[in-house]
Amino acid sequence: MILVVSGLHYLGKPLLALAIGSGSSPQAYLGTTYAAYSQSLAAILLVSTGLVLLLIMVRDMMTDMIARSETDTLSGLLNRRGFEDRGNKALMRAALAGVPAVMIVADLDHFKAINDSYGHASGDRVIELFAGTLRDSAEQRGIVGRLGGEEFAIFLPGANLMTGRLYAETARSAFAGLPPDDLGVPIAVTASFGIASLRPGDTLSDLLRRADAALYQAKTEGRNRVSLFIEEPPRSLWQERGRSA
């Protein structure tokens, strides 16, 4: 808008000079109405341009500060705060649109032993590679974050349990297949995954809690696997009578 006004100002200066006069000499020009108008408008445009540029700089700085506050520096993924903020918004959109969604919680197997045996630098390298595997597998549609330590979460809007399982199996097998030279440790490293689907009335915490329960099941069943949170259907009256007979 300021550029448009500035352009009109300079295009209209010759016409205005003809209409109200600009003086016959430099000394005479300074005392004309045209000179006062021209200099005042130029000053206003200059100040306005400076203010707009300042606002743009402040906006960019705020955007950068927010991004930094929501990003995990080691993995490059969203941190817990960023994941919860974006996850809550995506969950609300999915619920309003009536589309399915799943939550996946992933945890590196025996990560403490890796840190203890090979050092924190090696552990950091494993974190970085696992984060990259999750991000690449999710592409653009998933919201991927590091909740803390060796625990990660992925929210997939538009996915059901089977789609979520396919994603998790793809990420699990890709990471488990990384050669030790890439990992920086002389052993294969694996991860376990738990998946839960969105239900009516769910909060992000509800989804995370059920996915975490499925993750616990994957851990207890031997690790390096994917488990789904599937509740048992309610027992029928006939089943209850059969049990009591």
UniProtKB/TrEMBL annotation:
Reactions mediated catalytically:
2 GTP = 3',3'-c-di-GMP + 2 diphosphate
Q: What is its EC number?
A: 2.7.7.65
Pfam families from the xrefs?
Answer: GGDEF
Q: Which InterPro entries match?
A: Diguanylate_Cyclase, GGDEF_dom, Nucleotide_cyclase, Rev_trsase/Diguanyl_cyclase
Report any one BP term from Gene Ontology.
cell adhesion involved in single-species biofilm formation
Q: What are this entry's molecular-function GO terms?
A: diguanylate cyclase activity
Is NADP among the key words of this record? Answer: no
Please list every transmembrane segment annotated in the UniProt record, as residue ranges: 41-58
Q: Which UniProt keywords apply?
A: Membrane, Transmembrane, Transmembrane helix
Superkingdom of the organism of origin: Bacteria
Domain GGDEF: residue ranges: 99-231
A GO CC annotation recorded here is: plasma membrane
The name this protein goes by in its record:
diguanylate cyclase
Q: Which organism was this protein described from?
A: Devosia elaeis
